[in-house]
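--- STAGE predict ---
source: upstream dedup step, 1 unique chain passed
mode: sequence only
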Amino acid sequence: MAQFNMANRTVLISGGGISGPALAFWLKAGGFQPTLIEQAPRLRTGGYVIDFWGLGYWIAAKMGLEADINHVGYHVREMCIVNDSGKRVAGFGTDVFGELTNNRYVTLGRSDLSRLLFEKIKDTTEVLFDNEIIDLDQQAEGVRVRLKNGGERAFDLVIGADGLHSGVRRLAFGPRQQFERKLGYAVAAFEAQGYRPRDDDVYLMYGLPGRMLGRFTLHRNRTLFLFVFTVGDGALPTALDEQKEMLRKKYADGGWECPRILEELGHTEELYFDSVSQIRMNNWSKGRIALTGDAAFCVSLLAGQGSALAMISAYVLAGELMKAEGRHHEAFLSYEALLRDYIQAKQRGAKRFATALAPRTQLGLLFRNLVTKAFAVPGLAHLAIGKEITDAVQLPDYRWRLPIG
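--- STAGE serialize ---
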């Protein structure tokens, strides 16, 4: 293939979750030389499941991942709300999601999607595990980067794809507190082996005022538990024992399977635990440094679309850099212009969704259950959630320089 000249070809990407490897894939397709750095010593496992559809699904399909995500994923048939005794009190079938997305809708582990994306880049992209950026020095011709394990290196561009707690954002733009908007909730998740009962392809939810506990059956005899609960403005515990104790206190009076699930909690050594927050920034770039995915605009975990939005933003950022022949100022402006209104609409919807998932009062729970029951009325579910499910942005179909798939 003929060689071509392009400015700003070397790109350091911080973050090995979703947007990082997706960005590396599309940058490579655009003729750039990406390097991926990840703080963890290896790919993360466990965590939580995500609902994946729309443009994020479309981009995964363009990467040749459609069969893979459907193989490792789940096709949920029902969302079921239960009471203290485990009796179904509300719920709805998920056919509406298939109808709204042309059956391009799947639920899968976030870590599974991350692994599939990494498999696509591992042989063509330099990857630095167990490392992180500790200093950034922007210069006229590039960015000098100091690494925790590996001295200094120079890159043409640096992209922060390192999530809600982004180190690149902190170094280049300022402390997280400047941009984080807490929604008043926290979330925790863990997996257990051999838990019974198992309800395949059913998402079970149990609610108390200001608290939700979900159970979802996974492959390989595993079960995922998800806690969503209200919190104040204070800092959340960071030590595993303290996090477990907080959950025990929050759910001590719970019925249904709460006592057994809290017993399982005592055995786990891997607990995802974080605040439910959004990131709001006036600009997603500064000079030769830009942000993508949750680092730029986290809509919150409860929105259910963070991974899809990470895929979308990575695709657009890489495409605009290629289209601009590496002229980063031009590319970064186009990237924001294409996505900012769309992302802001998703953030507004996410705030409403958080309140509906874990209402703060008993009356709120009853109202939520009534609304959920009404989804069984033909056409009402389309009217209620259609706007949230469908993507109100059209992505460019870039002409990539190198083969994809």
